[in-house]
Amino acid sequence: MRLAPGLAIRKSSINGKGCFATTHFPRGKKIAEYAGERISDEEANRRAHRRILRICAIDEKWSLDGSRHGNGTHYINHSCAPNSYVKILYEHIQFYALRDIHPGEEITVDYESTLHSDKKRCYCGAKTCRGTINKIQN
Prior knowledge:
Layout: E1 7-11, E2 17-21, E3 30-33, E4 37-40, H1 41-47, E5 55-57, E6 62-65, E7 77-78, E8 84-89, E9 92-97, E10 108-109
Parallel strand pairs: 7-10
Antiparallel strand pairs: 1-2, 3-9, 4-6, 5-6, 8-9
């Protein structure tokens, strides 16, 4: 796997492996673009039964499976208090720094909605942790 510039994969205290900064990413700077195999949402739902999911939706029809042809961004873990956010522009999934991210820091994003069950527990450790990965709508 060829990693996106400025990223490293290491053991994470949140979940398994995580994506860590090897360089400084100033607030608002693009960190990387999500890479993976382009699949239909129907195929994404079929693959969702895996224990570890590395699928990110582009839109209502297409998704990217980062476990195939990924660049390390598929190791970005969920946090209820993330330091990055996702922008989807012209079918490209991009990560941007919400605040300054320093070398050695784990890059995190709020998944908000995933193919996981709404009961999937969150272990981010944030003071504002909601307890689940998906943001459950009331």
